[in-house]
Amino acid sequence: MREEILKFDSVEISFEEGPVVHDVSFSLHSGEILALVGESGSGKSTLIKSAMGLLNDNGLVTKGDIYYKGTNLLQLSEKEMRKIRGAEIGMIFQDAKSSLCPIRTIGSQIIESMNSHKKIPKAIAKEKALDLFEKIGFREAEKLWKSYPFELSGGMNQRVGIAISMLMNPSILLADEPTSALDVAVQKQVVDEMLNLRELFGTAIIIVTHDISVAAAMADTVLVLKDGNMMEYGEAKKVIDSPENDYTKHLMEAVPRLKRA
Amino acid sequence: MKEIITVNNLTKYFKAHGKADTAAVDNVSFSLHDGETLALVGESGSGKSTIARLLTGLIKATDGNIRIYDKDICKMKKNKAIELYSQIQMVFQNPAESFNPRKTLGYGIGESLKNRGYNSGATANKVAELLEMCGLPAEIALKYPHQVSGGQCQRAAIARALAVEPRILICDEATSSLDVTVQKQIIELLDKLRKSKILSIIFICHNLALVQQFCDRVIVLYDGKIVDQGTPDEIINNPQADYTKLLVDSIL
Fold it and tell me: Signal peptide span per the entry (chain B) (predicted)?
Protein backbone atom coordinates (compact mmCIF):
# COMPACT_ATOMS: atom_id res chain seq x y z
CA MET A 1 0.00 0.00 0.00
CA ARG A 2 1.16 3.52 -0.67
CA GLU A 3 2.28 5.79 2.13
CA GLU A 4 -0.44 7.30 4.30
CA ILE A 5 0.13 11.05 4.30
CA LEU A 6 -2.94 12.55 5.91
CA LYS A 7 -5.10 11.06 8.59
CA PHE A 8 -8.23 12.43 10.24
CA ASP A 9 -8.89 10.53 13.45
CA SER A 10 -12.41 10.99 14.94
CA VAL A 11 -12.34 14.72 14.27
CA GLU A 12 -15.02 16.94 15.78
CA ILE A 13 -15.08 20.64 14.82
CA SER A 14 -17.09 23.19 16.77
CA PHE A 15 -18.11 26.76 16.24
CA GLU A 16 -19.62 28.99 18.91
CA GLU A 17 -23.03 27.36 18.49
CA GLY A 18 -21.63 23.89 19.12
CA PRO A 19 -20.18 21.04 17.09
CA VAL A 20 -20.74 21.19 13.31
CA VAL A 21 -18.59 18.25 12.21
CA HIS A 22 -18.89 15.03 14.18
CA ASP A 23 -16.50 12.13 14.44
CA VAL A 24 -14.98 12.16 10.96
CA SER A 25 -12.16 9.72 10.20
CA PHE A 26 -10.44 9.07 6.91
CA SER A 27 -6.97 8.68 5.55
CA LEU A 28 -5.32 9.84 2.37
CA HIS A 29 -2.43 8.06 0.68
CA SER A 30 0.13 9.56 -1.67
CA GLY A 31 -1.28 9.96 -5.16
CA GLU A 32 -4.84 9.26 -4.01
CA ILE A 33 -7.77 11.46 -4.98
CA LEU A 34 -10.46 11.72 -2.32
CA ALA A 35 -13.73 13.50 -3.01
CA LEU A 36 -15.69 15.04 -0.14
CA VAL A 37 -19.26 15.31 -1.34
CA GLY A 38 -22.36 16.62 0.33
CA GLU A 39 -24.88 19.45 0.17
CA SER A 40 -24.38 23.04 1.29
CA GLY A 41 -23.81 23.23 5.02
CA SER A 42 -22.70 19.62 5.34
CA GLY A 43 -19.25 20.63 6.62
CA LYS A 44 -17.14 19.80 3.56
CA SER A 45 -15.23 23.08 3.45
CA THR A 46 -14.91 23.27 7.23
CA LEU A 47 -13.24 19.89 7.18
CA ILE A 48 -10.50 20.81 4.71
CA LYS A 49 -9.98 24.20 6.30
CA SER A 50 -9.22 22.41 9.56
CA ALA A 51 -6.37 20.55 7.86
CA MET A 52 -4.88 23.88 6.78
CA GLY A 53 -5.37 25.50 10.20
CA LEU A 54 -7.63 28.01 8.47
CA LEU A 55 -10.76 27.75 10.61
CA ASN A 56 -11.97 31.18 11.65
CA ASP A 57 -11.19 32.48 15.12
CA ASN A 58 -14.41 31.01 16.47
CA GLY A 59 -13.89 27.56 14.94
CA LEU A 60 -11.90 24.85 16.69
CA VAL A 61 -11.12 21.16 16.42
CA THR A 62 -12.65 20.01 19.70
CA LYS A 63 -12.00 16.28 19.51
CA GLY A 64 -9.74 13.93 17.58
CA ASP A 65 -6.46 14.48 15.76
CA ILE A 66 -5.23 15.36 12.27
CA TYR A 67 -1.90 13.81 11.30
CA TYR A 68 0.23 14.86 8.35
CA LYS A 69 2.98 12.29 7.71
CA GLY A 70 2.88 11.30 11.37
CA THR A 71 2.94 14.86 12.77
CA ASN A 72 -0.12 16.00 14.68
CA LEU A 73 -1.08 19.23 12.91
CA LEU A 74 -3.19 20.39 15.83
CA GLN A 75 -0.19 20.58 18.13
CA LEU A 76 1.89 22.76 15.82
CA SER A 77 2.41 26.45 16.53
CA GLU A 78 1.24 28.98 13.95
CA LYS A 79 4.88 29.45 12.91
CA GLU A 80 5.40 25.73 12.34
CA MET A 81 2.02 25.47 10.59
CA ARG A 82 3.11 28.16 8.16
CA LYS A 83 5.90 25.87 6.92
CA ILE A 84 3.37 23.21 6.06
CA ARG A 85 0.64 25.43 4.68
CA GLY A 86 1.33 26.07 1.00
CA ALA A 87 4.63 24.18 0.89
CA GLU A 88 3.41 20.75 1.99
CA ILE A 89 -0.35 21.16 1.66
CA GLY A 90 -1.52 23.47 -1.11
CA MET A 91 -5.01 24.83 -1.53
CA ILE A 92 -7.18 26.20 -4.31
CA PHE A 93 -10.57 27.84 -4.03
CA GLN A 94 -13.81 28.10 -5.95
CA ASP A 95 -13.30 31.58 -7.28
CA ALA A 96 -9.69 31.71 -8.40
CA LYS A 97 -9.95 35.24 -9.68
CA SER A 98 -10.78 36.65 -6.30
CA SER A 99 -8.04 34.66 -4.61
CA LEU A 100 -5.53 36.46 -6.83
CA CYS A 101 -4.64 40.13 -6.34
CA PRO A 102 -6.45 42.12 -9.04
CA ILE A 103 -3.86 44.88 -9.49
CA ARG A 104 -0.69 42.82 -9.83
CA THR A 105 0.55 40.55 -12.57
CA ILE A 106 0.49 36.78 -12.27
CA GLY A 107 4.29 36.81 -12.34
CA SER A 108 4.73 39.15 -9.39
CA GLN A 109 2.21 37.11 -7.38
CA ILE A 110 4.09 33.93 -8.12
CA ILE A 111 7.36 35.50 -6.95
CA GLU A 112 5.65 36.68 -3.77
CA SER A 113 4.15 33.31 -3.03
CA MET A 114 7.42 31.47 -3.60
CA ASN A 115 9.40 34.00 -1.54
CA SER A 116 7.12 33.60 1.43
CA HIS A 117 8.41 30.05 1.82
CA LYS A 118 12.03 30.39 0.79
CA LYS A 119 14.13 33.34 -0.38
CA ILE A 120 14.64 32.75 -4.05
CA PRO A 121 16.03 35.07 -6.77
CA LYS A 122 13.38 36.41 -9.15
CA ALA A 123 15.01 34.96 -12.23
CA ILE A 124 15.05 31.47 -10.74
CA ALA A 125 11.45 31.76 -9.56
CA LYS A 126 10.43 32.78 -13.06
CA GLU A 127 12.38 29.96 -14.65
CA LYS A 128 10.77 27.45 -12.32
CA ALA A 129 7.29 28.82 -12.96
CA LEU A 130 7.65 28.91 -16.75
CA ASP A 131 8.99 25.40 -16.63
CA LEU A 132 5.88 24.23 -14.78
CA PHE A 133 3.63 26.22 -17.13
CA GLU A 134 5.18 24.35 -20.01
CA LYS A 135 4.80 20.99 -18.31
CA ILE A 136 1.09 21.48 -17.76
CA GLY A 137 0.65 22.74 -21.28
CA PHE A 138 0.06 26.50 -20.97
CA ARG A 139 0.67 28.20 -24.27
CA GLU A 140 2.29 31.64 -24.30
CA ALA A 141 3.75 31.20 -20.83
CA GLU A 142 5.73 34.44 -21.11
CA LYS A 143 2.58 36.42 -21.91
CA LEU A 144 0.74 34.74 -19.05
CA TRP A 145 3.53 35.74 -16.65
CA LYS A 146 2.87 39.41 -17.49
CA SER A 147 -0.94 39.16 -17.42
CA TYR A 148 -3.33 40.51 -14.81
CA PRO A 149 -6.08 38.21 -13.49
CA PHE A 150 -8.84 40.27 -15.18
CA GLU A 151 -7.22 39.68 -18.56
CA LEU A 152 -7.73 35.93 -18.20
CA SER A 153 -10.88 33.86 -18.46
CA GLY A 154 -12.39 32.18 -15.40
CA GLY A 155 -11.03 28.81 -16.42
CA MET A 156 -7.56 30.19 -17.09
CA ASN A 157 -7.53 31.90 -13.68
CA GLN A 158 -8.40 28.61 -12.04
CA ARG A 159 -5.62 26.82 -13.93
CA VAL A 160 -3.15 29.55 -12.90
CA GLY A 161 -4.34 29.15 -9.29
CA ILE A 162 -3.64 25.43 -9.51
CA ALA A 163 -0.23 26.07 -11.08
CA ILE A 164 0.72 28.51 -8.30
CA SER A 165 -0.25 26.06 -5.60
CA MET A 166 1.76 23.34 -7.38
CA LEU A 167 4.96 25.43 -7.59
CA MET A 168 6.02 24.47 -4.09
CA ASN A 169 5.44 20.85 -5.06
CA PRO A 170 3.09 20.04 -2.17
CA SER A 171 2.29 16.42 -1.36
CA ILE A 172 -1.39 17.27 -0.95
CA LEU A 173 -3.58 19.64 -2.90
CA LEU A 174 -6.85 20.66 -1.23
CA ALA A 175 -9.36 21.87 -3.80
CA ASP A 176 -12.53 23.56 -2.54
CA GLU A 177 -15.17 23.44 -5.31
CA PRO A 178 -12.56 24.27 -7.97
CA THR A 179 -14.88 23.68 -10.91
CA SER A 180 -18.22 24.89 -9.59
CA ALA A 181 -18.09 28.38 -11.06
CA LEU A 182 -16.97 27.21 -14.50
CA ASP A 183 -18.77 26.30 -17.72
CA VAL A 184 -18.92 22.56 -18.43
CA ALA A 185 -16.34 22.64 -21.21
CA VAL A 186 -13.91 24.55 -18.99
CA GLN A 187 -14.77 22.35 -16.03
CA LYS A 188 -13.53 19.34 -17.96
CA GLN A 189 -10.21 21.08 -18.69
CA VAL A 190 -9.66 21.77 -15.00
CA VAL A 191 -10.57 18.19 -14.04
CA ASP A 192 -8.16 16.85 -16.69
CA GLU A 193 -5.49 19.20 -15.40
CA MET A 194 -5.78 17.92 -11.83
CA LEU A 195 -5.61 14.32 -13.06
CA ASN A 196 -2.55 15.23 -15.10
CA LEU A 197 -0.85 16.76 -12.03
CA ARG A 198 -1.37 13.58 -10.11
CA GLU A 199 0.30 11.67 -12.96
CA LEU A 200 3.20 14.12 -13.19
CA PHE A 201 3.93 14.73 -9.51
CA GLY A 202 2.11 12.01 -7.60
CA THR A 203 0.19 14.68 -5.68
CA ALA A 204 -2.64 13.48 -3.46
CA ILE A 205 -5.79 15.55 -3.92
CA ILE A 206 -8.81 16.17 -1.73
CA ILE A 207 -11.55 17.68 -3.83
CA VAL A 208 -14.58 19.20 -2.15
CA THR A 209 -17.53 19.19 -4.52
CA HIS A 210 -21.29 19.05 -4.59
CA ASP A 211 -21.11 17.81 -8.17
CA ILE A 212 -21.23 14.02 -8.12
CA SER A 213 -20.13 13.76 -11.75
CA VAL A 214 -16.88 15.59 -10.94
CA ALA A 215 -16.30 13.16 -8.05
CA ALA A 216 -17.06 10.21 -10.33
CA ALA A 217 -14.63 11.46 -12.97
CA MET A 218 -11.73 12.06 -10.61
CA ALA A 219 -11.88 10.32 -7.29
CA ASP A 220 -10.44 7.02 -6.07
CA THR A 221 -12.32 7.31 -2.79
CA VAL A 222 -15.45 9.22 -1.82
CA LEU A 223 -16.62 10.45 1.56
CA VAL A 224 -20.26 11.53 1.80
CA LEU A 225 -21.15 14.09 4.47
CA LYS A 226 -24.51 15.22 5.76
CA ASP A 227 -24.95 17.76 8.55
CA GLY A 228 -21.34 17.15 9.58
CA ASN A 229 -21.75 13.40 9.88
CA MET A 230 -20.04 10.79 7.75
CA MET A 231 -22.68 8.93 5.78
CA GLU A 232 -20.54 6.69 3.68
CA TYR A 233 -16.84 6.36 2.93
CA GLY A 234 -15.21 4.00 0.50
CA GLU A 235 -14.09 3.26 -3.01
CA ALA A 236 -15.54 5.83 -5.44
CA LYS A 237 -17.17 3.40 -7.81
CA LYS A 238 -18.87 1.53 -5.01
CA VAL A 239 -20.18 4.62 -3.19
CA ILE A 240 -21.47 6.24 -6.39
CA ASP A 241 -22.84 3.22 -8.25
CA SER A 242 -24.06 1.03 -5.42
CA PRO A 243 -24.39 3.10 -2.26
CA GLU A 244 -25.43 1.39 0.96
CA ASN A 245 -26.39 4.32 3.11
CA ASP A 246 -29.96 5.66 2.71
CA TYR A 247 -28.88 9.28 2.41
CA THR A 248 -26.25 8.43 -0.20
CA LYS A 249 -28.89 6.56 -2.19
CA HIS A 250 -31.22 9.54 -1.96
CA LEU A 251 -28.40 11.86 -3.07
CA MET A 252 -27.33 9.70 -6.01
CA GLU A 253 -30.92 9.35 -7.19
CA ALA A 254 -31.33 13.12 -7.28
CA VAL A 255 -28.42 13.57 -9.68
CA PRO A 256 -29.70 14.03 -13.22
CA ARG A 257 -27.75 11.69 -15.47
CA LEU A 258 -27.27 12.06 -19.16
CA LYS A 259 -28.71 9.23 -21.20
CA ARG A 260 -26.78 8.63 -24.40
CA ALA A 261 -28.04 6.39 -27.14
CA MET B 1 -49.42 23.35 -31.50
CA LYS B 2 -49.98 27.06 -31.43
CA GLU B 3 -47.00 29.39 -31.35
CA ILE B 4 -47.31 31.68 -28.35
CA ILE B 5 -43.95 33.41 -28.63
CA THR B 6 -42.38 34.12 -31.99
CA VAL B 7 -39.00 35.76 -32.07
CA ASN B 8 -37.68 37.08 -35.40
CA ASN B 9 -34.14 38.28 -36.09
CA LEU B 10 -33.77 39.45 -32.51
CA THR B 11 -30.57 41.42 -31.93
CA LYS B 12 -29.25 43.19 -28.87
CA TYR B 13 -26.07 45.26 -28.85
CA PHE B 14 -24.50 46.50 -25.66
CA LYS B 15 -22.41 49.63 -25.89
CA ALA B 16 -18.89 49.41 -24.51
CA HIS B 17 -16.59 52.37 -23.88
CA GLY B 18 -13.85 52.71 -26.48
CA LYS B 19 -14.64 49.33 -28.01
CA ALA B 20 -16.92 48.07 -30.72
CA ASP B 21 -20.46 47.28 -29.53
CA THR B 22 -20.88 43.71 -28.34
CA ALA B 23 -23.66 41.69 -29.89
CA ALA B 24 -25.04 39.80 -26.89
CA VAL B 25 -27.86 38.40 -29.01
CA ASP B 26 -27.20 38.24 -32.72
CA ASN B 27 -30.03 37.73 -35.20
CA VAL B 28 -31.86 35.04 -33.24
CA SER B 29 -35.18 33.56 -34.39
CA PHE B 30 -37.18 30.89 -32.58
CA SER B 31 -40.65 30.15 -31.29
CA LEU B 32 -42.27 28.72 -28.19
CA HIS B 33 -45.36 26.56 -28.58
CA ASP B 34 -48.30 26.32 -26.22
CA GLY B 35 -47.58 23.92 -23.35
CA GLU B 36 -44.01 23.34 -24.40
CA THR B 37 -40.85 23.42 -22.27
CA LEU B 38 -38.01 24.91 -24.27
CA ALA B 39 -34.42 24.89 -23.02
CA LEU B 40 -31.86 27.58 -23.79
CA VAL B 41 -28.39 26.12 -23.33
CA GLY B 42 -24.97 27.70 -23.72
CA GLU B 43 -21.88 28.84 -21.83
CA SER B 44 -21.60 32.06 -19.83
CA GLY B 45 -21.84 35.04 -22.14
CA SER B 46 -23.70 33.15 -24.85
CA GLY B 47 -26.78 35.38 -24.55
CA LYS B 48 -29.21 33.12 -22.66
CA SER B 49 -30.09 35.62 -19.96
CA THR B 50 -30.18 38.55 -22.38
CA ILE B 51 -32.87 36.72 -24.35
CA ALA B 52 -34.84 36.19 -21.14
CA ARG B 53 -34.57 39.87 -20.28
CA LEU B 54 -35.64 40.89 -23.79
CA LEU B 55 -38.68 38.61 -23.65
CA THR B 56 -39.80 40.05 -20.31
CA GLY B 57 -39.24 43.62 -21.47
CA LEU B 58 -36.54 44.32 -18.88
CA ILE B 59 -34.33 45.59 -21.69
CA LYS B 60 -35.12 46.83 -25.19
CA ALA B 61 -34.08 45.05 -28.37
CA THR B 62 -31.72 46.78 -30.80
CA ASP B 63 -33.39 45.12 -33.76
CA GLY B 64 -35.87 42.41 -34.67
CA ASN B 65 -39.23 41.70 -33.11
CA ILE B 66 -40.86 39.59 -30.42
CA ARG B 67 -44.48 38.53 -30.82
CA ILE B 68 -46.25 37.24 -27.73
CA TYR B 69 -49.78 35.96 -28.39
CA ASP B 70 -49.51 37.54 -31.84
CA LYS B 71 -48.78 41.01 -30.53
CA ASP B 72 -45.47 42.70 -31.30
CA ILE B 73 -44.26 43.79 -27.87
CA CYS B 74 -41.34 45.77 -29.26
CA LYS B 75 -43.73 48.24 -30.91
CA MET B 76 -46.41 48.26 -28.23
CA LYS B 77 -47.21 51.22 -26.01
CA LYS B 78 -45.96 50.77 -22.46
CA ASN B 79 -49.36 50.70 -20.72
CA LYS B 80 -50.64 48.04 -23.12
CA ALA B 81 -47.44 46.03 -22.82
CA ILE B 82 -47.78 45.86 -19.03
CA GLU B 83 -50.99 43.85 -19.39
CA LEU B 84 -49.29 41.43 -21.76
CA TYR B 85 -46.27 41.07 -19.52
CA SER B 86 -48.41 39.60 -16.78
CA GLN B 87 -48.64 36.56 -19.07
CA ILE B 88 -44.92 36.03 -18.87
CA GLN B 89 -43.12 35.78 -15.54
CA MET B 90 -39.59 35.04 -14.50
CA VAL B 91 -37.80 33.00 -11.83
CA PHE B 92 -34.14 33.84 -11.20
CA GLN B 93 -31.05 31.92 -10.20
CA ASN B 94 -30.51 33.37 -6.77
CA PRO B 95 -33.83 33.29 -4.92
CA ALA B 96 -32.67 35.13 -1.79
CA GLU B 97 -31.41 38.07 -3.83
CA SER B 98 -34.56 38.30 -5.90
CA PHE B 99 -36.63 39.21 -2.82
CA ASN B 100 -36.41 42.49 -0.96
CA PRO B 101 -34.41 41.55 2.17
CA ARG B 102 -36.35 44.04 4.30
CA LYS B 103 -39.79 42.74 3.42
CA THR B 104 -41.41 39.41 4.25
CA LEU B 105 -41.80 36.75 1.58
CA GLY B 106 -45.58 37.16 1.87
CA TYR B 107 -45.23 40.85 1.01
CA GLY B 108 -43.04 40.01 -1.99
CA ILE B 109 -45.47 37.41 -3.29
CA GLY B 110 -48.50 39.66 -2.76
CA GLU B 111 -47.01 42.87 -4.12
CA SER B 112 -48.14 42.32 -7.69
CA LEU B 113 -51.64 41.43 -6.47
CA LYS B 114 -51.94 44.68 -4.53
CA ASN B 115 -50.87 46.52 -7.66
CA ARG B 116 -53.76 44.88 -9.46
CA GLY B 117 -56.29 46.12 -6.95
CA TYR B 118 -56.59 43.22 -4.51
CA ASN B 119 -57.41 44.40 -0.98
CA SER B 120 -55.24 43.13 1.87
CA GLY B 121 -57.60 40.31 2.88
CA ALA B 122 -57.89 38.97 -0.65
CA THR B 123 -54.13 39.29 -1.11
CA ALA B 124 -53.45 37.28 2.07
CA ASN B 125 -55.82 34.53 0.94
CA LYS B 126 -54.28 34.35 -2.49
CA VAL B 127 -50.74 34.30 -1.04
CA ALA B 128 -51.69 31.39 1.23
CA GLU B 129 -53.15 29.57 -1.75
CA LEU B 130 -50.01 30.18 -3.84
CA LEU B 131 -47.74 28.98 -1.02
CA GLU B 132 -49.75 25.80 -0.66
CA MET B 133 -49.58 25.22 -4.41
CA CYS B 134 -45.81 25.45 -4.21
CA GLY B 135 -45.58 23.09 -1.26
CA LEU B 136 -44.83 25.64 1.45
CA PRO B 137 -46.51 26.07 4.86
CA ALA B 138 -48.59 29.27 5.24
CA GLU B 139 -46.34 30.70 7.98
CA ILE B 140 -43.55 31.17 5.41
CA ALA B 141 -45.41 34.34 4.39
CA LEU B 142 -44.24 35.97 7.64
CA LYS B 143 -40.58 35.07 7.19
CA TYR B 144 -37.82 37.14 5.67
CA PRO B 145 -35.69 35.80 2.81
CA HIS B 146 -32.66 35.14 5.06
CA GLN B 147 -34.73 33.04 7.46
CA VAL B 148 -35.59 30.29 5.00
CA SER B 149 -33.48 27.76 3.07
CA GLY B 150 -32.50 28.25 -0.58
CA GLY B 151 -35.04 25.66 -1.71
CA GLN B 152 -37.89 27.25 0.26
CA CYS B 153 -36.94 30.66 -1.07
CA GLN B 154 -36.98 29.37 -4.66
CA ARG B 155 -40.44 27.88 -4.08
CA ALA B 156 -41.56 31.28 -2.80
CA ALA B 157 -40.11 32.90 -5.93
CA ILE B 158 -42.13 30.47 -8.06
CA ALA B 159 -45.23 31.33 -6.01
CA ARG B 160 -44.56 35.02 -6.66
CA ALA B 161 -44.20 34.41 -10.40
CA LEU B 162 -47.50 32.51 -10.45
CA ALA B 163 -49.42 35.22 -8.54
CA VAL B 164 -50.52 37.02 -11.71
CA GLU B 165 -51.52 33.71 -13.34
CA PRO B 166 -49.06 33.80 -16.21
CA ARG B 167 -49.15 31.38 -19.15
CA ILE B 168 -45.40 31.45 -19.68
CA LEU B 169 -42.67 31.01 -17.10
CA ILE B 170 -39.02 31.84 -17.78
CA CYS B 171 -36.66 30.05 -15.40
CA ASP B 172 -33.22 31.62 -15.63
CA GLU B 173 -30.88 29.03 -14.07
CA ALA B 174 -33.57 28.60 -11.44
CA THR B 175 -32.09 25.40 -10.06
CA SER B 176 -28.38 26.00 -10.66
CA SER B 177 -27.48 27.31 -7.22
CA LEU B 178 -29.42 24.60 -5.38
CA ASP B 179 -28.22 21.28 -4.02
CA VAL B 180 -29.13 18.29 -6.19
CA THR B 181 -31.76 16.95 -3.80
CA VAL B 182 -33.41 20.38 -3.63
CA GLN B 183 -33.00 20.79 -7.39
CA LYS B 184 -34.95 17.58 -7.83
CA GLN B 185 -37.79 18.89 -5.64
CA ILE B 186 -38.00 22.16 -7.59
CA ILE B 187 -38.05 20.27 -10.90
CA GLU B 188 -40.85 18.06 -9.56
CA LEU B 189 -42.77 21.18 -8.51
CA LEU B 190 -42.33 22.81 -11.93
CA ASP B 191 -43.39 19.57 -13.59
CA LYS B 192 -46.56 19.43 -11.48
CA LEU B 193 -47.33 23.08 -12.21
CA ARG B 194 -46.78 22.88 -15.95
CA LYS B 195 -49.24 19.98 -16.09
CA SER B 196 -51.92 21.44 -13.82
CA LYS B 197 -51.72 25.04 -15.03
CA ILE B 198 -50.77 24.33 -18.67
CA LEU B 199 -47.70 26.49 -18.37
CA SER B 200 -45.21 26.91 -21.17
CA ILE B 201 -41.69 27.16 -19.83
CA ILE B 202 -38.45 28.62 -21.16
CA PHE B 203 -35.82 26.83 -19.13
CA ILE B 204 -32.38 28.42 -19.16
CA CYS B 205 -29.85 25.92 -17.93
CA HIS B 206 -26.33 24.70 -18.54
CA ASN B 207 -26.90 21.17 -17.29
CA LEU B 208 -27.71 19.01 -20.32
CA ALA B 209 -28.65 16.00 -18.20
CA LEU B 210 -31.31 18.04 -16.45
CA VAL B 211 -32.50 19.47 -19.77
CA GLN B 212 -32.84 15.96 -21.15
CA GLN B 213 -35.00 15.01 -18.20
CA PHE B 214 -37.26 18.05 -18.19
CA CYS B 215 -37.47 19.74 -21.60
CA ASP B 216 -39.19 19.05 -24.92
CA ARG B 217 -36.87 21.02 -27.14
CA VAL B 218 -33.41 22.60 -26.88
CA ILE B 219 -31.80 25.65 -28.44
CA VAL B 220 -28.01 25.81 -28.15
CA LEU B 221 -26.55 29.30 -28.11
CA TYR B 222 -22.97 30.28 -28.71
CA ASP B 223 -21.72 33.84 -28.84
CA GLY B 224 -25.24 35.22 -29.17
CA LYS B 225 -26.21 32.98 -32.08
CA ILE B 226 -28.28 29.82 -32.31
CA VAL B 227 -25.89 27.06 -33.37
CA ASP B 228 -28.05 24.00 -32.87
CA GLN B 229 -31.61 23.02 -32.05
CA GLY B 230 -33.71 19.92 -31.69
CA THR B 231 -35.05 17.55 -29.07
CA PRO B 232 -32.71 16.84 -26.15
CA ASP B 233 -32.00 13.35 -27.48
CA GLU B 234 -31.13 14.68 -30.93
CA ILE B 235 -28.78 17.28 -29.45
CA ILE B 236 -27.06 14.81 -27.15
CA ASN B 237 -26.78 11.84 -29.48
CA ASN B 238 -26.32 13.65 -32.74
CA PRO B 239 -24.92 17.14 -32.17
CA GLN B 240 -24.45 19.14 -35.37
CA ALA B 241 -22.49 22.26 -34.45
CA ASP B 242 -18.87 22.08 -33.28
CA TYR B 243 -19.74 23.83 -30.07
CA THR B 244 -22.53 21.36 -29.27
CA LYS B 245 -20.12 18.50 -29.87
CA LEU B 246 -17.63 20.06 -27.44
CA LEU B 247 -20.42 20.63 -24.92
CA VAL B 248 -21.64 17.04 -25.09
CA ASP B 249 -18.08 15.67 -24.96
CA SER B 250 -17.33 17.76 -21.88
CA ILE B 251 -20.03 16.17 -19.79
CA LEU B 252 -18.29 14.08 -17.19
Answer: none
